[in-house]
UniProtKB/TrEMBL annotation, chains A, B:
InterPro entries documented for this protein: Isoprenoid_synthase_dom_sf, Polyprenyl_synt, Polyprenyl_synt_CS
Alphabetized PANTHER family for the sequence: GERANYLGERANYL PYROPHOSPHATE SYNTHASE, SHORT CHAIN ISOPRENYL DIPHOSPHATE SYNTHASE
GO biological process: isoprenoid biosynthetic process
Protein name per Swiss-Prot or TrEMBL: Geranylgeranyl diphosphate synthase, type I
Length: 350, 350
């Protein structure tokens, strides 16, 4: 299938579920007292977002239960064995989106980023104290929401366990990312490990937790987790490629900003191994000062070293791996859409 | 019993369990990679602390299971019905201490406090970014640890649910505390509600979660929770009284610092209701500038208004309420020690 048709199918699948997800977020994380705290906690979630991870969760549920997409109520979903039909997979999807929002709020404080999703970051719209506390509130709310899926208690507890270990890994990944900024020699494997922790585990949990609470076999749970890990890693690598290859106006920020800001990526780490003087690629020290010609020359040098192709190929390999994981699932439309999402994550233009 | 004998019994009970708790913290929260992250996360836990909350948890387990203090291994504890004898109540105690440590780290950032337990706060010993992330890591680790008590899954899930809602309430309490700083008219009931959220719910969870994972009846769980809530509120009120009545050298900080820093307490809120000009009680604007004479005069004014007696009486009433909650438990030594702890929280001299 052409990548354009894939993209259309993915955007349709996401679009068809977005309103349901947004309504569920409002239900599971309603306004409460103290108002300012809950306004700050809900602020980013209300500001939008594609809802890609919740879509992965909802499709994973449909694929595992082997039901037609959108044929079942996500709040009263049938288990795999058919013993029960009242598992709230939507709560699991919301819980993970709430965790994602918490990490964005705290990351923006740590990185001192001013903007997020086109609006001021929470610590700018409110203040740092409120942003720390808003993130902390979302953190526990995510666990409260995950506790209410109505799954068999052993499965419910296992879902809580995975949610907790996922959060720990995200923190470890963020710490590694900060650590790498001051290290001169990071191996590509170490970078991929960091990306797995920081970004991919949340995709892994988004795919695996619905299988857990629907009572799927461990083999299926593990396969969905690995699907999320591999496609999540590919997603991050594609982000690094796009930063160099997509025109600034389409990217919504200066092309090559990672290079200007000395951010290591799989591309620069590969280039270093090839003997490229990565630190000398761009002289300008700010994204305001850099010229398109400078970026063009840097990209050409990275292309000559085979570094961009290496990143693209690594992302493609991970995507193929991720799709193969899904072979253990029944052959159905939801599984196809999960494959499409994996493809989309590395073929999307921006 | 005299308050001195009570204090000795409490300190003995805490002391007998401290090394066990410290060893368990090391086991359940070991050093890991990235090292700097885990050093920062473990830093405050290693710096000490009385371990009062873990002691409450361990005594609650002994009281509920009706076993002699220190007669059973806390890692393989018998359930109430006697069906199982492998519940890890120590993990629950550690989990709550880890949550306590996370809240201290984030609170110190928010309040910009430099010192904690006699050592620099984590955001001073490391940096703010690391401190945010260290707190976030402890947060999820606490859930990971609580997930491994080996309790019946339904009970284990219920414990996770209470842990999550407790964390949400702590965040709400902290937000209320900040909000009250800019409000002129806070009612004593609102103050007690804030204290319940910010401080007491963690005592409630410390007392109730062991009962949950040991399979105790809901009535017992609720009673232990309320015991923790009432004694925790009394504890905070006593803190406010001590700030005015204990000599600075014994208090370890300037007596009356709450007044100097315009911090509202049950005492000042009562005094305002009696028409006392609380804002005019102390002219000095820093704890360095204030004199003992100024504090003496302010305390005399508050005593005349009956505000200190009001706070003391409120704390005593709450303590009596908290002890009455324990009547549903079997009459045993651990229950007596829980009563002693409630008394100790308001009779302690500093």
């Amino acid at each position: 299938m052409s990548s354009e048709a894939t993209e259309q199918r993915v955007l349709a699948a996401v679009g068809e579920r977005r309103e349901l997800v947004n309504a569920a977020i409002d239900e599971d994380l309603p306004m409460a007292d103290p108002e300012r705290l809950y306004e700050a906690a809900r602020y980013l979630l209300k500001a939008g977002g594609k809802r890609l991870r919740p879509t992965v969760s909802l499709l994973a549920a449909e694929a595992v239960a082997d039901v037609d997409p959108l044929s079942e109520d996500y709040r009263t979903f049938p288990t795999v064995g058919g013993e029960a039909s009242d598992v709230d997979v939507m709560a699991a999807a919301v819980s993970l989106e709430v965790i994602q929002s918490f990490t964005l709020i705290h990351d923006d404080i740590m990185d001192d980023d001013d903007l997020r999703r086109g609006v001021p970051a929470v610590h700018k719209a409110y203040d740092t104290e409120t942003a720390i506390l808003a993130g902390d509130t979302l953190y526990s709310k995510a666990f409260e929401i995950m506790a209410e899926t109505g799954a068999d208690p052993a499965d419910g507890l296992e879902a809580m366990r995975m949610l907790a270990s996922t959060c720990t890994k995200i923190c470890e990944g963020q710490a590694l990312d900060v650590q790498f900024e001051s290290e001169t020699e990071v191996l590509p494997e170490e970078y991929l490990d960091m990306v797995e922790h920081k970004t991919a585990v949340l995709y892994g949990a988004a795919a695996a937790i619905p299988a857990i609470i629907l009572g799927a076999d461990e083999e299926v749970v593990d396969a969905l987790y690995q699907y999320g890990i591999d496609s999540g890693r590919a997603f991050q690598i594609q982000d690094d490629v796009l930063d160099l290859t997509v025109p600034s106006e389409k990217l919504g920020k200066q092309r090559g900003s990672d290079l200007v800001e000395d951010k290591e990526t799989l591309i620069t780490l590969h280039a270093r191994q090839q003997g490229v003087d990565v630190d000398g690629l761009v002289d300008s020290e700010t994204v305001e000062a850099v010229t398109e010609e400078e970026i063009d020359a840097a990209v050409e040098r990275l292309e000559e070293a085979g570094s961009i192709d290496y990143a693209r190929q690594t992302a493609r390999d991970l995507t193929e791996q991720s799709k193969e994981c899904l072979d253990v699932l029944p052959d159905n439309e939801a599984r196809e859409l999960l494959c499409d999402i994996a493809d989309y994550l590395i073929t999307r233009g921006y």
